[in-house]
Write the structure tokens for this entry.
Amino acid sequence: MTTAMELDKKDEGVSPRRPQTTGPAVPIFIVILLATAAIAQQKPFPSVILEERPSFPMSAAMERLYDEWNPHEDRGNELYSNFKYTELNGFKRETNVSRRDPTKVIKVDDIYHVWYTGRRSECPPVGLQNATDTKPGTDWDLADIWHATSKDGWNWIEDKQPAVRRPPKPERGFRSICTPGVLVWKGKYYLYFQAYSPMVGGQVWCPVRVAFADSPYGPWTHHPEPAVVPSPPGSWGNIKINDPCPVVHKGKILIYYKGAPIERGPEYVLRMQGVAFSDNPLGPFEASKLNPVINSGHETCMFPFKDGVAALVALDGPEKNTIQWSPDGENFKVMSMIQVPPVAPGPYCPDALSDSGDGRGFTWGLCHINPDGGGAANESILARFDCDLSLDVNREIFKRNNLRFNEQTYFQKGVALPPFIKQQIIRERKTLDRETIR
Amino acid sequence: MTTAMELDKKDEGVSPRRPQTTGPAVPIFIVILLATAAIAQQKPFPSVILEERPSFPMSAAMERLYDEWNPHEDRGNELYSNFKYTELNGFKRETNVSRRDPTKVIKVDDIYHVWYTGRRSECPPVGLQNATDTKPGTDWDLADIWHATSKDGWNWIEDKQPAVRRPPKPERGFRSICTPGVLVWKGKYYLYFQAYSPMVGGQVWCPVRVAFADSPYGPWTHHPEPAVVPSPPGSWGNIKINDPCPVVHKGKILIYYKGAPIERGPEYVLRMQGVAFSDNPLGPFEASKLNPVINSGHETCMFPFKDGVAALVALDGPEKNTIQWSPDGENFKVMSMIQVPPVAPGPYCPDALSDSGDGRGFTWGLCHINPDGGGAANESILARFDCDLSLDVNREIFKRNNLRFNEQTYFQKGVALPPFIKQQIIRERKTLDRETIR
């Protein structure tokens, strides 16, 4: 198999297969010798990677390599991975059927379980202005929480009915329930989800509700009180709590979420992520005083890693497409920069809810894709991603860089230059494009 | 026009059009009032963006927003852009014709000029083991430097012959000359390029040569001496100097380049970027003592910005897909994280060579694409990218985040899970995938 990542421009077809090192492959005395020589004569930086931060003068970039990253770059970074995608079997693609926002995958009695936002409606989303009681405004309008199982993680069987249905009007969530997160706590199962009423969208108060069951097969009971509520007026998450993502850490249940304010405009916060804590899976959950704890991202994806909490942050903000880590769940640091991350990932993370204090990470999960690259206006599909964010494997292919794309990637809608911008550029060219100064 | 970036999940179809702010859109006294209230009562972080760093306790992420980024995130960052692509007219796609690695675009007497690696060979690249005097080993083997002109930046006319041909055997570069960079200096034109001999690839000593002319139309004369040579044995760039990228800064000619060592293996530096200085365009160029100055990236792309030098760093390393800036050309800081950057970009940057001390950035350029997503083994095409890395325009569409991809992007070769890894994952599943701890 020859992938784009194996062939390396200017490396003339020599495959840069570099195993993730577990220790120096050259004898340490040679490294010390070279380092000593470099220090003595201020020679150029050596070709062998110095394991220890050299003491001779370096550029700011090389200082960062030692201080923020590590000398073996991404291939020595346990919180770096690329992501490789596979279509799933068992989720039949049908007109006006959308599946998105999978929970974490859990494995119970040798069966994998996942829940997700499911919409089966009479027509595609028509936009908020045209939505009716039966016409969805968006992809996640008029949705319920669906459940599917798998014996191998590749072939899935979807239940014939929703696992958790919208509660009756006028209860919170009667319009749509979506973006579930799953918790297993003291032998019981909990699903957290956004509860929209009376109407998805616009800017309506949207808390997180919770349903519980004794088995992953249900039946599920709606808890009457909301679990996580928007923050007070004037604050960053005052209208909607999106994408609840439960993790258990140091004896507490942590629910991460994306917050949105009712205010709109360039002078307001767009989206950030916070966390709320509780001892009780039914709540109430108390927001961290340090919120927001993530300054970027779109969907939430947190998981225990070693004795802290890691986060996959995608799509939005200055720290888009990074993996971050925090010792306390509240103070995150950027650990790596990633490409083409899964959208709305739900990793299979067996210790996400165990509070082991030794999170092992994950190697796969489910995510969603908008087949035409659209955002809100179309059906979504579930797909599988594989990666190496696990301390238990060492899959070299996932530690590589130099990911290249085919022609269609650059010229797809959303990446190609749209015609109206091209017209603007042509208009402005004569005044903007000056002669090369020489 | 509706792109994926305009429709925003959870925003329910409300288009998040946010003009790049030039100042606070709410009266400053309201901001101060809210900030004061927040400090007094330790309320949650406000929905209005505080222009000044608040003094109340914040998470590490929010501290970075003020200390490393800016409170308006990417939309307030003049060194952030996304990139939008267009196919070019005039570069006829023909079997066994490859065009790649464009220089910066320059504009002389109202005509845009670009040079690039051009290969016209009897067959596609056959790999280094099978290469002959007429069969290329790689995409950039048996190549010359070609030249094309345009009146509008979209429609191009290619010269009928190479602008700079390989010198005769046994001169350096008789096998292939590639990856040109252009300099205009005191009314003369200079092209810098890699000079391969006797054979592209393997691990052969590859310096940068230079050719000069009185006009962008040539004729070009090879200067006999190499301009930039690999660093001494044992150091990081001891075998090849790739992708020479000239910039003029503070009276000096700076040539940035990617260095590669002859040594291969996980214990050696893979690729980093350095800079060399000279007063004379024909050299010799003296390497910075702080090299490498960029710890990541693949092709070079440096340009003057304000009174410093900026760099677009793509594809490789822990700081892949970032834009960086340096006051002195040697000490770079990460300024933004970007997505789907142009490969081997050659921006139209009218002041790249003027040493104005007030670099204005750029809005477009040429890059190359491997149509099938492959790296070294196939023909490449030139394409145009547009962006907003310019201080002279404010094109909001290029400041957006939330770039989404279509289904084909995830399932293309190189991004989809390859079958052999799938087989490994299936084999390892039973021992690796544990029950969810509950």
Notes: The CA atoms of residues 150 and 156 of chain A lie 5 Å apart. Confidence is low (pLDDT under 50) at residues 1-25 of chain A. The helical segments of chain A are 28-41, 60-67, 407-411, 419-432. Chain A touches chain B through 189 residues (CB under 8 Å).
